Amino acid sequence: MATPFSPERGSAPRTSEAQVLILFVDLCVKTLVGLGRKYPWQRPERCPKCGGVRVWGHGFVPAYFDEAGSQCVFLKRYRCPQCRVVIRMRPSGYWRRIQAAVAAVVQCVLDRIEKGRWPPGSNAARGRHWLRALKRQVRTHLGMSYAERIGEGFAELLRRGVCAVSRAV
Fold first, then answer.
1. Dihedral sign for Cα atoms in the order 141, 144, 145, 147
2. Roughly how many angstroms between the first and final C-alpha of the chain, as a whole number?
3. What average pLDDT does the segment 64-87 reach?
4. Cα–chain-centroid distance for residue 97?
5. Residue 90's beta-bridge partner residues?
6. Is 146:152 a contact under the CB 8 Å cutoff?
């Protein structure tokens, strides 16, 4: 008898099945909160990975952003059956895995670097997390020479398009 993942049935194990690709789209998070799942997402005409034309809807995934308050928003996913990639839509102006807008993160961290204190109304614990991750990214991408000039290192990482406050290297 064939198991669900046996070669006779032609299916692969779920562990190697799909990769996730993020597409950044221009949209207002507040509009997304208001419309929910009825937001008119633009389906990609082609798969960004393999160029396949049979990209179809693959449901929604919940996400949280500072602009939405404590309410979750639903981001659209698409799937390419040819290369099995899952395409996740995300608002531009946000780094992946970060709830705050890039501009807010940059302002918060630069205030701390330049003025020596966190901006009023900001979450200091979150800011310390970002600053620790920034120092690690600067050391990793730019070398130790930038460690003393963290502000310059931050600007260089932003210029290179690196998520400067990510814990992942």
1. positive
2. 45
3. 92
4. 5
5. 24
6. yes
C-alpha dist (Å) from residue 20 to 1, 8, 58, 128: 33, 27, 12, 29
- Burial (CB < 10 A; 0-12, 13-18, 19+), residue 32, is buried
Residue 56 amino acid letter: W
What whole-number distance in Å separates Cα of residue 130 and Cα of residue 117?
Answer: 14
Helix axes 102-115, 150-160, angle to 10 degrees: 160
CA angle 154, 92, 128 (to 5 degrees): 40
Q: Provide the token pair at 23.
A: 């597409």
For 119-128, the pLDDT digits (tens) are 998 999 999 9
Average of pLDDT values for 139-157? Answer: 84
SS (H, E, C) the chain: CCCCCCHHHCCCCHHHCCCEEEEEECCCHHHHHHHHHHCCCCCCCCCCCCCCCCCEEEEEEEECCHHHCCCCEEEEEEECCCCCCEEEEEECCECCCCCCEHHHHHHHHHHHHHHCCCCCCCCHHHHHHHHHHHHHHHHHHHCHHHCCCHHHHHHHHHHHCCCCCCCCC
Its pTM stands at 0.77
Task: Give domain limits for the chain.
Answer: 7-91, 102-160
